[in-house]
Design a protein that fits this description.
three-stranded mixed beta sheet, 27% helix, 17% strand
């Protein structure tokens, strides 16, 4: 069968069976789109179909775009990778390392041994975490009345490090601080900088922190799978008038828009006549920048929001400036040196420079690493590689 027949059948089966309410999936090579399909509905139990231009919360797929913005500013000499980030964002200098809690539940902290750099933030080796995957952060937030990150309040960034910068990998709010650095040196809000320097040059007109009227007409609802396995809709939306635009996870967008970003990375920074990044910058972003430090599994600390999660358990993985870098060939066909990441509501992408292929897969389901949606993404990825012979 052709990729079109194979992938269509795979995705249609999943929506017909009710495994996912709706899904949009696309694949591309350097030249352009090689597959696109949309199946099911935007909202469980309603008739509005999932379409190629359906808008979703892309969550942590935002990180690669914010990282791209930061690397543009590195190219322009406005930011650099090894200076303390406090040079541009003074408030990060107040960040402490969490050592534990005293008998009354108050946090015990100390100063870090070294300052946080942009390189630490881009590779998730700064020491920041997320409350979704770390109970100590939840405990800290409760003890200090610190809001959660999706509140988009500046106070949400005042969580401590779990270790000294550069010592290991821990997934967290680092790229939200990267967004603050972009704002500090550009003099623009993150969304305005992204629109001018990344989104508009790539014609990504349906991607934004603020959901426009046109985007809202095509917005898919977020669903949640209960302990009984059944899906229901929930009211979850990133604040539309936030204190800060969340560079780590605040964007809404479409599969077609994000595929344009995948294409620019496959083309080493150039596509549609736009040179968004230099080729050597893309190469830097796509290389292992964590050395011997490996990406480790995410252990759920909030089961309604995430299951335990790891891409390709047992395989060696590192981090570049914005992406997970797979050190080994994956069972789906993904090459060593390929890049990938995901968004909380089970949206995923990958970029494989060696095989000149990439893809985007969007659903709107919690918890992350959903028992039905995550395997469906892997099956879609495998179908793309099998079609290549």
């Amino acid at each position: 069968m052709s990729l079109k027949q194979d992938a269509d059948a795979l995705l249609r089966r999943a929506t017909d069976a009710g495994h996912v309410p709706g899904v949009v999936a696309m694949a591309t090579d350097r030249g352009g789109t090689i597959f696109e399909g949309a199946f099911g509905t935007r909202v469980l139990g309603q008739v509005a179909p999932m379409t190629l231009d359906t808008v979703v919360w892309i969550a942590s797929m935002t990180k690669a775009l914010t990282s791209t913005a930061a690397m543009q500013l590195v190219e322009r000499g406005k930011l650099d990778l090894e200076s303390p980030v406090s040079r541009w964002v003074p408030e990060i200098a107040a960040t402490q390392v969490l050592e534990g809690f005293d008998g009354s539940g108050r946090p015990r902290t100390r100063a870090p041994k070294r300052p946080v750099t942009l390189a630490h933030l881009l590779t998730h080796t700064a020491g920041f975490s997320y409350e979704f995957w770390n109970e100590a952060i939840q405990k800290y937030q409760k003890a200090t009345e610190t809001p959660g990150i999706t509140s988009c309040q500046n106070a949400a960034l005042r969580t401590p490090l779990l270790f000294d910068p550069g010592e290991r990998w821990e997934y967290g709010i680092s790229v939200d601080w990267v967004g603050k650095a972009v704002e500090a040196v550009s003099g623009k809000k993150l969304g305005a900088y992204l629109k001018e320097n990344v989104l508009a040059p790539l014609d990504m007109s349906d991607t934004a922190f603020k959901i426009s009227a046109s985007m809202r007409e095509r917005l898919a609802k977020i669903h949640q799978r209960g302990e009984d396995g059944k899906l229901g809709t929930i009211d979850l939306e990133i604040p539309q008038d936030p204190e800060f635009e969340m560079g780590g996870g605040g964007l809404y967008g479409t599969a077609g828009d994000y595929l344009k970003f995948v294409q620019i990375i496959l083309n080493r920074g150039r596509a549609r006549g736009a040179q968004v990044l230099k080729g050597e910058t893309v190469d830097m972003m796509a290389r292992n920048q964590t050395g011997q430090i490996r990406v480790t599994p995410l252990r759920s600390a909030m089961p309604p929001l995430s299951n335990d999660a790891e891409f390709f358990p047992g395989l060696e993985k590192h981090y570049g400036y914005g992406f997970q870098v797979n050190a080994e060939r994956a069972p789906t066909g993904l090459s060593a040196g390929s890049l990938m990441w995901a968004g909380m509501a089970n949206s995923f992408y990958w970029i494989d420079p060696a095989k000149n292929i990439g893809g985007v897969y969007l659903t709107q389901i919690l918890p992350f690493a959903d028992v039905k949606s995550a395997p469906l993404f892997m099956d879609f990825q495998k179908a793309v590689y099998q079609s290549m012979g």
